[in-house]
Amino acid sequence: MAFFEYAEKHQIPLMIHNNDPLMHWDINKISPRSRAKGWYYDETMPSQSYFFDALDRVLAAFPRLKAAIAHFGFYSDDLPRAEAMLETYPNLRFDITPALIIYDELSRTPAQSQAFFTRYHDRLIFGTDAENTLDSCTEVHASC
Predict the structure, then answer these.
(1) Position with higher pLDDT, 136 vs 52
(2) pLDDT recorded at residue 144
(3) What pTM does this model have?
(4) How far is CA 52 from CA 29, 82, 133, in A?
(5) Does the pLDDT at position 95 exceed 70?
(6) DSSP 96
(7) Which SS3 state, helix, strand or coil, does residue 46 take?
(8) Is 117 helix (H, G, I), strand (E, B) or coil?
């Protein structure tokens, strides 16, 4: 906890990748791509809710922490919870780097999602998970 205490005291911005989509805890529900990359968890790993709870404890202990939660924290299926977090922690941001499940979930409630994005537009960070290696570049664009 000393790490978070120091970051809060000195207002050092942090990017926190806290979780993964719920489907990653069920090998029968994850995408073939995720399965191939080994992005799944079995019963030897803590549950998704464990990681949500861990983040809640950190934020409660350090309410002035300047942090961005990667991939919308995988709260895209629970906008009221995401809104409550932003209301409770004024230095909190959400990174909306694409994880396709995020956009699928947000598109299920377009009016609610649009209202959220309109209200918190200044607390959302755009990013990318794109690989930047020469091999990945040439796979996409032969002219790289």
Answers:
(1) 52
(2) 37
(3) 0.84
(4) 20, 11, 32
(5) yes
(6) -
(7) coil
(8) helix
Q: Is 94 helix (H, G, I), strand (E, B) or coil?
A: strand
The letter for the amino acid at 88 is T
Alpha carbon distance 97, 71 (integer Å): 5
SS3 16: strand
Model confidence pLDDT, tens digit, residues 74-88: 999 999 999 999 999
Type of residue numbered 85? M
The CA angle 91-113-55, to the nearest 5 degrees, is 40
| Cα separation, 33 vs 53, whole angstroms | 28
Q: How many other C-beta atoms lie within 10 A of the C-beta of residue 91?
A: 18
DSSP alpha helix (H) spans, the chain:
2-9, 32-37, 48-61, 79-88, 100-107, 110-119, 134-140
What local confidence, expressed as pLDDT, does residue 137 receive? Answer: 47
Token pair belonging to 28: 């029968």
Asked if 74 contacts 19 with a C-beta cutoff of 8 angstroms, the reply is yes
pLDDT tens digits along 18-51: 999 888 999 888 888 888 888 899 889 999 999 9
CA of 126: how far to CAs of 46, 67, 78, 121, in Å?
29, 14, 20, 10
Q: Which amino acid is at 94?
A: F
